[in-house]
């Protein structure tokens, strides 16, 4: 069951010892919560993912659905015999068949290419018809918690967090980092802010970086570049 945003804000208010929400208004804490959810998705694209069929448009160049932030992987065609699709290096397609993007469209896709520098776009081979669709997974933007009116208490907060419950404590660390940073001129708050962000970063594995680059790769596939990411 998703954790209620009110419950999370309550814990933050209690931690800040600001039960009347004078120094840190609840509306401000909710803004920090929404910022924190986006930050989590930035470093852990798998935190909020959507799986299912993605309808294609006619042609080779495709775009992920609205609200998607990054492709994780495609597995197979959604129709017909549901043939598997493979990630390939676009440079190989360009060199072996320079005019491949102008081929006739098909409903069954064989390969796709992806450049993480353009995270919401990908190419399919052969080019698609409007009847084509692929099944896979992609990272999605979190839904924002509604910001309550100024001057209310935490009890006015409604809705639930979008990230999985396992990130609740991590999200709390982010909110406290932002709250203490606001008052960093006061003794001890700068250190508290840094400590909270360090806890947030460590929980996400930001220092490892391996969790950041969640592009679809196939290390054993000779069609992928040496660094594991497909070439543009």
State the gist of this model.
With 232 residues, the protein is an alpha+beta fold.
Order of helices and strands: HHEEEEHEEEHH
**Principal-axis shape:** elongated
Total individual domains: 2
The largest β sheet comes out as: 4 strands, mixed
Low-confidence stretches: 207-215, 222-232
Counted beta strands: 7
How much of the residues is beta strand, in percent? 15-25%
Given helix and strand content, the structural type is alpha+beta
Q: Return Rg in Å.
A: 22 Å
Total of helices: 5
The chain-level mean pLDDT equals 88
Helix content: 25-40%
Question: Strand order across the biggest sheet?
Answer: 2-6-5-4
- Span between N and C termini? 41 Å
Description:
Helix 1 (5-16) crosses helix 4 (168-182) and helix 2 (26-43) crosses helix 4. The strands form 2 sheets. Strands 2-6-5-4 form a 4-stranded mixed beta sheet, with no helix packed on it. A 3-stranded antiparallel beta sheet has the order 1-7-3, with no helix packed on it. It contains 5 helices and 7 strands; from the N terminus they run ααββββαβββαα. With 232 residues, the chain is α+β, with helices and mostly antiparallel strands. The radius of gyration is 22 Å and the shape is elongated. It has helices spanning 5-16, 26-43, 90-96, 168-182, 189-204, and strands at residues 49-55, 59-63, 68-77, 86-87, 111-113, 121-128, 133-140.
Which helices and strands appear, and what pairs or packs with what?
Blueprint: H1 5-16, H2 26-43, E1 49-55, E2 59-63, E3 68-77, E4 86-87, H3 90-96, E5 111-113, E6 121-128, E7 133-140, H4 168-182, H5 189-204
Parallel strand pairs: 4-5
Antiparallel strand pairs: 1-7, 2-6, 3-7, 5-6
